[in-house]
Amino acid sequence: MEKCLSTPSSQQLKSKPYPGQERLERPVDYKAIIEAGREWEDPDFMIGEFALLDTTMPAHIEASEWRRFQWRRASDVYGKFFLYEDISPTDIVQGGLGDCYLLSAISSLAEKPKRVERIFLTDEANKAGCYALRLYVNGEPKTVVIDDYFPWLKKYS
User: Fold this and answer.
1) C-alpha distances out from residue 12 to 5, 19, 128, 133, 140, Å
2) Nearest Cα residue to 29 out of 153, 156, 143
3) According to the model, what pLDDT value does residue 11 have?
4) Roughly how many angstroms between the first and final C-alpha of the chain, as a whole number?
5) Measured between alpha carbons, how far is 38 from 33 in angstroms, rounded to an integer?
6) What ranges do the domains of the chain cover?
7) Are strands 140-147 and 130-137 parallel, antiparallel or unpaired?
8) Contact between residue 48 and residue 151 where contact means Cβ atoms under 8 Å apart
9) Phi first, then psi: what are they for 6, rounded to 5°?
10) What is the pTM of this model?
11) Which residues contact 45 (CB under 8 A, 6 or more apart)?
12) DSSP string of 34-86?
């Protein structure tokens, strides 16, 4: 008899640990962080080349260029900015990181702007650089709090 692959039940998904699970189970008071108005850095996401490159893998052709990226805050690059005004799939611009899989998913999500708006629990830029998003992990809604550091290279700005 041929075996069929089955879809795991939500109970099976909940019981299986996933990377970063401990972090998502620990609440972060993002409202207090924003209200304090001091620049905040996500203590669980360490910036550096290891965030972009898997050093256990053979060197990728573009790896030398990826090492040139600097981690910058959105406000340092753009000054005063909006998280979103008019949301459009054409807002997404591919840079040099090789993350087109993620950007294409975000672009397709932007076909329905209200969906993007519902993801953001913080909908305005703030001095703390702290943003909360509602994402689904294994089918369960989770609040994910991030800072506004991102990899930046002048030639792509």
Assistant:
1) 14, 16, 38, 25, 12
2) 143
3) 58
4) 57
5) 7
6) 84-111
7) antiparallel
8) no
9) -115, 155
10) 0.78
11) 51, 146, 147
12) HHHTS----TTS--SGGGT--TTSPPPTTHHHHTT-EEEEHHHHHSS--S-SS
Question: CA angle 50-45-30, nearest 5°?
Answer: 165
pLDDT tens track, the chain, 157 positions: 444 444 555 555 555 666 667 777 788 999 999 999 999 999 888 887 777 776 676 666 566 667 778 899 999 998 888 888 889 998 888 877 778 888 899 899 999 999 999 999 998 999 999 999 999 888 889 999 999 998 888 766 6
Structure-token pair, residue 60? 């990728």
Beta-bridge mates of residue 146: 131
Place of tokens 């075996």: 3
* Secondary structure letter of residue 25 according to DSSP: H
Give the helix/strand (H/E) hosting 15: helix 10-15
Identify the burial level of 69 via C-beta atoms within 10 angstroms of its C-beta, where 0-12 means exposed, 13-18 middle and 19 or more buried: buried
Rg of the chain over CA atoms, in angstroms? Answer: 18
Joined together, the tokens standing for residue 41 give 């850095």
Q: Classify residue 5 by burial, with Cβ atoms within 10 Å: 0-12, 13-18, 19+.
A: exposed
